Amino acid sequence: MDQPLVPPSSRQRVVENVYSHPRFRADAAAVVLHLVSVASIMGTHPDFASTTQGTILCVMEAITIVAHLVYLARLAYFKETFTQWQTLKWLEYSISATLGIFAVAYVAGGEVDTNTILLLVAAGLAQQSQGYQLEDFMKTSTFQWTDANIVISFLLASVLQGFEFIVVHRIINDSPGKGGTEELVFWSYVLGYGFFGQSHSARAPASSSHAYRLYHGRRHLLQNPGRTRRSCIQHRKRL
Fold it and tell me: Contact, 189 vs 104, CB < 8 A?
């Protein structure tokens, strides 16, 4: 019979090691950076929140900060792995990223007609749904970037992103307050959103990698000190 490999005292080390997890650090950094961003903007432009773009940006930042705090709580206190809130994460992206689009579109004080608003909302939601599907595909052991469905999904998201950039740039160009600052905001938005999509495509399939499986297999064993090496291996295979 297999014997337990880890004494009960190891359970405490799991709690401590949660705070060194890359995902925990990333979410903690996100909370700090978003708070600093809001504070710096409001500190230098006290009336910004009363503008259309300011209101949209504040709502977006509030949603983002609350969401990252929820992720931290689920990781630190409920001992969930970051793959367990995938749906919530992409729901947050679909709301905050879409709000970010309009914060940029209104930055020069222009007007956006109803049809354009609906079009941008649909494009934003469609992009995030493609991201959700891609990440879901990444959890399978058969994931390959050369798979036709993966390629089509990523290309569709890229086309929607490019379309969104063009529409937003036209809105800014037709706005009365367009200037160098507004142009800088637009290109920062292009680089930021574009980098997010590119980093997603460059990422290794997380749950199919040996390192990922090894980390969570060992974490499962530490959290369940009565389990054996065999059950640990079985848990890794299910990831």
Answer: yes
Evaluate whether 189 touches 102 at the Cβ level (below 8 Å): no
User: Are the beta carbons of 8 and 225 closer than 8 angstroms?
Assistant: yes
Residue 89 binned pLDDT confidence (cut-offs 50, 70, 90)? confident
Determine the distance from the C-alpha atom of residue 177 to the mean position of all C-alpha atoms in its chain, rounded to a whole number: 31
Determine the Cα–Cα distance for residues 66 and 68; give it in Å rounded to an integer: 6
Amino acid, res. 146: T
Taking residue 19's Cβ as centre, other Cβ atoms within 10 Å add up to: 12
Max Cα-Cα span within the chain? 77
Q: Is the pLDDT of residue 84 over 80?
A: no
- CA dist 168 and 48 (Å) reads 20
CA-to-CA separations, 106 to 49, 120, 187, in angstroms, rounded? 13, 13, 14
Least confident of 58-67, 70-79, 124-133, 180-189: 70-79
Distances in Å between the Cα of 50 and the Cα atoms of 42, 106, 113, 215 are 11, 13, 21, 47
Q: What is the pTM of this model?
A: 0.71
The H or E element that residue 15 is part of is helix 10-18
Q: How far apart are CA 156 and CA 168, in angstroms?
A: 18
